[in-house]
Automatic annotation (TrEMBL), chain A:
One annotated Gene Ontology cellular component of this protein: membrane
Keyword terms: ATP-binding, Cell membrane, Membrane, Nucleotide-binding, Translocase, Transport
Domain annotation ABC transporter: ranges: 2-246
CDD domains: ABC_PhnC_transporter
Biased composition (Low complexity): 264-284
Source domain of life: Archaea
InterPro entries, per database record: AAA+_ATPase, ABC_transporter-like_ATP-bd, ABC_transporter-like_CS, ABC_transpr_PhnC, MetN_ABC_transporter-like, P-loop_NTPase
Organism of provenance: Natronocalculus amylovorans
Protein name per UniProt: Phosphonate ABC transporter ATP-binding protein
Length: 284, 271
């Protein structure tokens, strides 16, 4: 279970990218984080495994606090967090197999890594995963010979072979065409189910998010303005997320009732106090 | 009031100097400096002297023909050319072995500022001093012979190789390295998988290129006593054995050309 509490990030330039985010990701749910460019989606996901150092707040994975860990302990925790990137971030000049096996580097010595000497079971598992992601027989191709969709599959395979407790995906479909995007989202959904892990996906295409996600997190200008079941994401909620519509003027009674209704029909989703996204319905 | 509101219609291309006055001052000063250099250095040079000089040059070249072909003389040239080639080989290998850690240390995207500054310092020192001067110092230190040449050429290799390799390391796609770090790999492993494969082609290209440069250097450092074919060249000159000089020069040109062809071929293949 991933718990994020009051996560803040202020860049050296003074930009406050995250203004105290609190949320939980658990089970094998697909959670999509949506929001306009610059809302802080990438910063949020990168603060989880500290590719970007958060300024304040806590990140806890299965009870272990991450933000204060030493470099060595952080490496151990990172083995349990898989990550998929927008630009795939493969090593272009290495083979598909080497790229996949690099997901196991946290478990082998430097010398073994240098000689590409991975344990037999890792190699077997790599073959299995390549088969699963639809790249069977491609192990000796160089990563730069692959198409975008194939590269992203290698990126996913590299994350899956880590046997992570959670999978983070930072805009995994933004560089792909619509069909390939769907294939990649299908794959991520399958993985959540077969590996029984939650998947947190940053995505800016709302229809894609709605189609696949169990739950939506809406980020606007560094604030979490929506956190709920996908079914609860109506047009007004989208307005709040994408245009920052101020919901204060709404009738408070209606707002409370509705968000309570929503809160009761979902077990995992919780409406955050700063999420009166339904409150302004009357204003529309 | 009316003048203030006149729309700006005149336009001048912005200059990289502070303004156009500064620009013209710099141009004038540069021109004056070049003129002064010409006048002060070439004051006593008459056209007659140039014509005479060309005549002397021609007679020097003609006195080189035919090149010396006597067996023992040629064998001596071959021996020392081989010594030069061996020096270039050893110096290239040594220089590059030292260059690898220096290059990674001098990559600003991998190292903290202090390590970066230290290694950039090493590179600057190596680049600042000319090869022949290093060779003179090396001869003073370890005596006449190829060892001095090897030290001098290795020293120069470090500056050249580390600088260019470091710049290539700084240009790599850091996304790959970041992704590998995100899997929980150690820093060394991340560099090994994320960075090294990206710089290997450049590394091979630079190695062959530097070997080719070192081959030329090893033919020259003998002039100051640091071993190789240069030693023989200097001897032949000082004894006015111009036919022998011709043989030596031909041998050097042959070896350097062969090295350059090989280097060009290999670099074309890897890049």
């Amino acid at each position: 279970m991933l718990e994020v509490t009051n996560l803040r990030k202020v860049y050296p330039t003074g930009d406050e990218a995250l203004k105290g985010i609190t949320t939980t990701v658990d089970g094998n749910e697909i959670v999509s984080m949506i929001g306009p460019s610059g809302a802080g989606k990438s910063t949020f996901i990168r603060c989880i495994n500290r590719l970007t150092e958060p300024t304040e707040g806590e990140v806890t994975l299965d009870g272990q606090e991450l933000t204060r860990l030493s470099k060595t302990d952080l490496r151990k925790v990172r083995r349990d967090i898989g990550m998929v990137f927008q630009e795939y971030n493969l090593v272009e000049r290495l083979s598909v197999m080497e790229n996949v096996l690099s997901g196991r580097l946290g478990y082998v010595s430097n010398w073994a890594a240098f000689r590409r000497n991975f344990p037999q079971e890792d190699v077997e598992r790599a073959f299995e995963i390549l088969e699963t992601v639809g790249l069977g027989g491609m192990e000796n191709k160089r990563a730069d010979e692959l198409s975008g969709g194939q590269r992203q599959r290698v990126g996913i395979a590299r994350a899956v072979i880590q046997e992570p407790k959670i999978l983070l995906a930072d805009e995994p479909t933004s560089s792909l065409d619509p069909d390939t995007s769907h294939a990649v989202m299908d794959l991520l959904t399958d993985i959540a189910e077969t590996e029984n892990i939650p998947v947190l996906i940053n995505i800016h295409e709302v229809p894609l998010a709605v189609e696949y996600a169990d739950r939506i997190l809406g980020l606007h200008n560094g604030e979490l303005v929506f956190d709920g079941k996908t079914t609860a994401l109506d047009d007004h909620a989208k307005d709040v997320i994408y245009r920052g519509a101020v919901p204060e003027t709404a009738t408070q009674v209606g707002a409370t009732t509705r968000s309570e209704t929503r809160a009761t029909d979902s077990t995992t989703a919780t409406a955050t106090p700063s999420t009166p996204h339904r409150a302004a319905t009357g204003e529309d | 009031m009316a003048t203030e509101q006149t729309p700006v219609t005149a336009w001048q291309r912005p200059t990289v100097f502070y303004n156009h006055t500064v620009k013209w001052i710099v141009y004038i000063l540069t021109t004056l400096f070049v003129l002064w250099s010409l006048v002060s250095l070439l004051a006593g040079v008459s056209p007659q002297r140039i014509v005479d000089g060309m005549g002397f040059g021609a007679s020097l070249v003609s006195s080189m023909v035919p090149p010396e072909t006597e067996a023992t003389a040629v064998n001596r040239v071959i021996d020392l050319v081989l010594e030069s080639i061996a020096m270039a080989m050893i110096a290239t290998v040594t220089g590059i072995l030292i260059s690898i850690p220096v290059a990674f240390g001098a990559a600003g995207n991998l190292m903290p500022r202090s390590v970066y500054a230290l290694n950039r310092g090493i590179i600057s020192v190596s680049r600042a001093v000319d090869g022949l001067i290093v060779a003179i110092i090396a001869v003073k230190a370890v005596g006449i012979g190829p060892l001095a040449g090897i030290i001098a050429i290795s020293f120069k290799t470090v500056g050249f190789f580390s600088k260019l390799l470091a710049e290539d390391i700084e240009d790599v796609d850091m996304g790959a390295m970041e992704a590998i770090e995100a899997t929980g790999a150690s820093k060394l492993q991340s560099v090994l998988y994320g960075i090294v494969p990206q710089v290997v082609p450049r590394f091979i290209g630079l190695t062959v290129y530097r070997w080719d440069i070192n081959l030329r250097a090893s033919a020259i450092v003998g002039i100051v006593g640091a071993g190789g074919i240069g030693t023989l060249l200097l001897q032949a000159f000082s004894r006015y054995e111009y036919n022998y000089v011709a043989t030596i020069l031909l041998a050097i040109i042959l070896v350097v050309l062969a090295g350059e062809l090989f280097s060009a071929y290999v670099r074309k293949r890897v890049q």
